[in-house]
Each structure stands twice: as structure tokens, then as C-alpha cells.
Amino acid sequence: MRKVFLDTSPLIYLLEGEPALRARVSGQLAAWVQSGVWLESSVLTLAELLVGPGKAGDVRLARRYRAAVHELLGTPLLAVDEAVAVYGAELRAHLGLRLPDALQLSAAVLAGCDVFYTNDARLRPVGGLEIVLVGADPGAEA
Length: 142
Hints:
Layout: E1 3-6, H1 8-16, H2 19-34, E2 38-40, H3 43-56, H4 59-72, H5 82-95, H6 99-110, E3 115-118, E4 130-133
């Protein structure tokens, strides 16, 4: 079964983005779900999602993010455990990634994901993981 890791930015676009971005992300996620693709993300994604609402004191938006994450995913959020930390450190050391990006990519690879869905064009494929940008064709298959 194919697995897609959802980075933070597509989820922000899904709930707060301009209509074109919301439609693009919603269409891509729907296409993946309809084709049987499994969606994954990590606890780091949730932490990143909750920063904006936390700064703004927007409890309702924080609840919406938490609900959306759990509704979209077929499994619990992936943990950032020791294995993720070690591989993330390797990625950061060798590729010069920011720590959150390295940990997200590490979690995706170690969970067996095929695709990393993001809007960060600086990220490059690692460990067999394909990078799919939000700006890519929303009908693309994983």
C-alpha cells in the first residue's frame, strides 16, 4: 500500500489558505484517499500547526487543526522517537536541513512512506521518498 506523509504547510493551506490553495490541497488529498493511499504525519506536524493559533489565542482554530489531523489520518500521529532523532540528525548533518525538516523527513522514511507532501521546494528526495509540492498537479497519483 502506498503511503503519503503530510507536512505542515498543506494542512495549513487546507484550513486557512486562500481558496485556490485550499482547493488544490483538498483535491490532492481526495485523489489519494480515493485511490487507497494511506496518509501519515507526525507529532511534530501537530506541534507546528498549533503555534499560529497559540500565538493568536485562537482556541477554536487549534481545535479545528487537531480534529482535521485526526480525521485525515488512518493511524495515530508518528512519534519522534530515538530512531527518528538519530536518522534526522544524519540528514541534518549531511544535507544541511533545518532540524524540523530533518525530523519530518526521517519520520516519513522510517514509517515507509513513498511520498512527502509539502510546499517546501528546498527539500530533496531522501531514502526513496518522493517530494511532491502543493504546486504540483493536484490530480497526480502517489
